[in-house]
Amino acid sequence: MTNPWVVYLLVPMVKIVVILGAITLAAAYLSYFERRLVGFLQIRLGPNRVGWQGVLQPIADALKLFSKEDIIPTRAEKLVYLSGPVLIIVPALVVFSVIPFGPPTNLFGLLPQAIPPYLTDINVSVLFVLGVSSFGIYGIILGGWASNNKFSLMGGLRSAAQLISYEVPMGFAIVAVLLMAGSLSLVSIVEAQRQAHVWYVFPGFVAFFIYFICGVAETNRNPFDLPEAEAELVAGFHTEYSGMKFAFYFLAEYANMVVVSSMATVLFFGGWLRPFPSWGWLGFLDVVPPVVWFLAKVAAFLYCYIWFRGTFPRVRFDQLMALGWKVFLPVSLANLMVIGTLIVLFGGGR
Amino acid sequence: MSVRKLLTEVFHLDLLGGLWQTARFTMTRKATVPYPEKRLDPTPRFRGMFGFSEERCIVCRACERACPIRIIYIDGHLEEVEVDGKKRKKQVLDRYDIDVKRCMFCGLCQEACPTTPKAIWLTTKTYELATYERDLSLYFRKDRLQSWEGVVAYPGVVAPADGQTPDDPGGTGGKERG
Amino acid sequence: MSTDLHLIQSMPDSEEMEVSFGPQHPATHGVLRVMVRLDGERILDARPIIGYLHRGTEKLFETMYYNGCVPHTDRLDYTTAAANNQAFVGAVEKLMGVTIPPRAAWIRMMLAEMQRLASHIIWLATHALDIGAMSPFFYTFQERETILDLFEEYCGARLTLNAMRVGGQPLDLPEGWTDRLRVFVDQLPDRIAEWERLLTDNRIWKGRTVGVGVISAADAVNWGLTGPPLRGSGVRWDVRKALPYEGYDQVEFDVPIGQNGDTYDRYLVRMEEMRQSLRILRQCLDRQPDGPVMAKVPKVIKPPKGEVYHSVEGPKGELGFYVVSDGSTQPYRLHVRPSSFINLQVLPELVRGHLVADLIAVIGTLDIVLGEIDR
Predict the structure, then answer these.
(1) Angle between helices A150-181 and A329-345 (to 10 degrees)
(2) A184 near A178, Cβ under 8 Å?
(3) Phi, psi (deg, nearest 5) at residue C16
(4) Measured between beta carbons, which residues in chain A are less than 8 angstroms from residue B1?
(5) Does residue B101 carry a pLDDT above 80?
(6) Chain A contacts of B34, Cβ < 8 Å?
(7) A59: Cβ contacts below 8 Å, ≥ 6 apart
(8) With an 8 Å Cβ cutoff, are C149 and B123 in contact?
(9) Exposure of A63 by Cβ count < 10 A (0-12 exposed, 13-18 middle, 19+ buried)?
(10) Percent of chain C at pLDDT above 90?
(11) How far apart are the C-alpha atoms of C183 and B6, rounded to whole Å?
């Protein structure tokens, strides 16, 4: 296992293929589960016709979107219009290169040595996630502008303003975790939670709350789905997109939901750790593989996303801004000071 | 600002009630009727596709007059017929057409019909009227109104049972739908 | 608000944009088209353009027998067919001087109140959907189905009822109908409470509705608003109380009013009106007069020469029919006073200076149906 071709090319390539495939499939099936769950929430059944209980629905949707006519509006800015979906899907998928799905594993002895189930662990992965996922906004703004549609333009502009205002409190919420963990590496943050014998959600509940709400806002989901507010802007920035170009926007939105949920899991809920990792008498929980713990936590967050969508009305643009700047920003700053003070006083500062 | 108000403001506690409500709805029975497999039975007075009986019709044209959009076309002529050995003049129906594609199913023709039981009625409990050929399938001549031939291919359009009238809409049977 | 507007207009580098909302827009309730002049997200002016659903109904009435007009009134405002029927036959009966039997009036009142419930339920569903809450749509429609089932059981149709005739009711109630109505009336208050739990205290809902589309009581009267938009501004005017028709002087009910005349108040007024309708229905169910359902009227209706105006309190406001008769079997002229049409006029006043999202909320709160506006 020291052959550099294997270590530096074959293993990463296999990982990339597996992660990309899994994420794309997960995003597609997330749309199925969303429709099903929102259906149940609204006392109806949701899609249940394609295959058993409709499980083939995402595949049917994909086939439909593939075979649809590819319309480019006559007066659209063609190059920019075409690059919009690419600009949004690429960052959404690249982010997954640093998400730690679990600890190094040898797949029940199938592999000669344990390899980590994530692509890489760079020492600034938190910054990497924030930076790359923010890059996806270009796809929305440029796509909205290039469509040459007033509704799309307004959707794109709303999205830009929304992203900027929610990036700030979200960043401060994450800084609280970084203070506790003392590292910017996601893997180290999980390990730090093991050493601290506690998930960071307990000392940092305020930070978690702000992070998650800002995450909902950043992914343009209800109740903050203003850029694509159906009742006001028809479909917002993707009004003019159809076929696979629309599918890319769609996939990117769901992939971003998975990113936000994964980050919430890693930063606040101990990543792949089982509940209360230091309590020995809960050791029987270890029969569940760590990756499953991780996925279960992510699924719980995704359920919250869907639950919110089925429950809340949409906020108005100015209220969205007010919430971000007037409530979450001061609260996250105050939270940061409280946590910093506590760490200094009680000699945390690992 | 009290602590409680601050907490509510920051953590949006006022929204928990709505979340609880939708969570409860998630558990309740679903209202969906999986349509082609399971069909709801229309009520006895439901105004659906026409039933028509040539024997009962006395060619009085009350229905033609009552129709607000005049989609009933009636032609008839006088004929001498022997009834109980006496020669009497009687109207005979030549044409009884309904342009169903324009019909708005108001039921005024049925209301105007003076015969007992009614010669035209809409309580046949049929509501699946979609077709591929609009002129052929939704322009009914009297024989088709009576026999429903050629219409049975469309699921749900069933012939009215014997003796089915508005006053006895259940008819004498054969009306069970899956 | 007007000073606000002044500021915007005087901004030197503001770039105005004209957006055509509709007629194929998901939230304009059918085929309403609103030409909106925008500065960024702020509305400088909004101009409703109507007529995409014009069918010439008023002219059509002139070619029809009086009873043949009834199914066409169903199609004015297709969510309030019973109220339309009631207003039309009421006008013709007034012209003919016919008093309908008590049992017919009783059935009409029940149908009208059920229709009010159904219409308010549709309003709540679409209003909430416009503001982004998609679930109330399904919860409310489930209850509306029960009302439509009762309609179907009574007259054979769910939406376009054609349930009333000049001189009374064409049919008596079927067996057991009142029992099923009572079950529904008993369970609806719980449902209304559930819907309110989702919306009334929800801060997002309040944020979207409180202070949006405010109109003062004096302005509301001057603009000729009726129904919940008028009562939301605090004017206690209800045709059922002011000019009682049928049995409305024999039942007890309150006319809820709002205070601020904003979207939230109109929401509260309509929610309370649903409870009051249930109260009327409960009193109707306790009464149950016997007797015929049809007065002695000739088979072919031939009102005397003359003209008459009769209005009822429809779910969306005052709904009136102005009938001119030349003594023949068909109306000489028939004019409708549509509540939605007159309520829609005030839209530009209500949204000026607000944000785009408020336009949708205000269209929802006016509760318009284009079938009635365009006729």
Answers:
(1) 10
(2) yes
(3) -80, 155
(4) none
(5) no
(6) 45, 48
(7) A28, A50
(8) no
(9) exposed
(10) 8
(11) 43
Q: Mean pLDDT over residues C44-57, rounded?
A: 87
Angstrom distance (rounded) from CA B96 to CA B55: 12
| B29's tokens | 């029975």
**DSSP sequence for A108-177:** TTTSSS-B-SSS---TTHHHHHHHHHHHTHHHHHHHHHHTT-HHHHHHHHHHHHHHHHHHHHHHHHHHHH
User: Token pair for residue C130?
Assistant: 């416009």
The answer to whether residues C142 and C333 touch, using CB atoms and an 8 Å cutoff, is no
Q: Which two tokens stand for residue A161?
A: 């303003």
Strand arrangement of the beta sheet that strand B139-140 belongs to: B72-83, B86-99, B139-140
Helix (H) or strand (E) holding B153: none
d(CA B59, CA A334): 89
Chain C residues with beta carbon closer than 8 angstroms to that of B46: 152, 156-157
What is the pLDDT, as a whole number, of residue B157? 37
C16: pLDDT strictly greater than 60: yes
- CB interface of C with B, residues 160-179, below 8 Å: 160, 162, 170-171, 174
Q: What is the pLDDT of residue C121?
A: 92
Chosen from C15, C16, C41, C142 to mutate, greatest number of chain A CBs within 10 A: C41
| A312 touching chain B per CB within 8 A | yes
**Residue B6 Rama label (left phi>0; alpha psi -120 to 50; beta):** alpha
SS3 B173: coil
CA atoms within 13 A on the CB side of B46: 17
Enumerate the residues of chain A whose CB falls inside 8 A of the CB of residue C202: 312-313
Residue with tokens 């939670």: A193
Confidence band, pLDDT 50/70/90 cuts, at residue B66: confident
pLDDT at B167 over 60: no
Chain B positions touching A41 (Cβ under 8 A) are: 22-23, 25-26
A178: Cβ–Cβ under 8 A, 6 or more apart, which residues?
Answer: A126, A184, A189
CA triple C81-C83-C89, angle to 5 deg: 100
The Cα–Cα gap between C332 and C326 comes to: 6
Residue of C nearest to A157 (CA): C40
Measured between beta carbons, which residues in chain B are less than 8 angstroms from residue C160? 104-106
Q: What distances in angstroms separate CA A114 from CA A102, A147, A190, A192, B115, one per listed residue?
A: 12, 49, 18, 21, 90
The DSSP element (H or E) to which C193 belongs, if any, is helix C177-199
Interface predicted TM-score (ipTM) over 0.90: no
Interchain pair B45, C155: CB under 8 A:
yes
How does pLDDT run across C351-375, given as a tens digit for each residue? Answer: 888 888 888 888 888 888 888 888 8
Are C204 and A231 in contact (CB < 8 Å)?
Answer: no
**Digit-coded pLDDT (tens) for C283-323:** 888 888 888 888 888 888 888 888 899 989 888 888 999 99
Per-residue pLDDT reduced to its tens digit, A219-264: 888 788 877 766 677 777 888 888 888 888 888 888 888 888 988 8
User: How far apart (Å, rounded) are the C-alpha atoms in residues A32 and A40?
Assistant: 12
Whole-prediction pTM: 0.84
Q: Which tokens is B56 given?
A: 């009962």
Between C356-366 and C263-287, two packed helices, what is the crossing angle to 10 degrees? 20
With CB atoms and an 8 Å threshold, state whether B10 touches A311: no
Residue B155 has pLDDT above 60, yes or no: no
Nearest by CB to C207, from A41, A42, A319: name it: A319
Q: In which element (H, E) is residue C151 found?
A: helix C135-155
- What pLDDT band is residue C156 in, cutting at 50, 70 and 90? confident
Q: Tokens representing C245?
A: 């028709």
CB of C198 within 8 Å of a chain B CB? The answer is yes
Asked if A126 and A174 touch (Cβ cutoff 8 Å), the reply is yes
Half-sphere exposure of A208 (CA within 13 A, CB side): 17
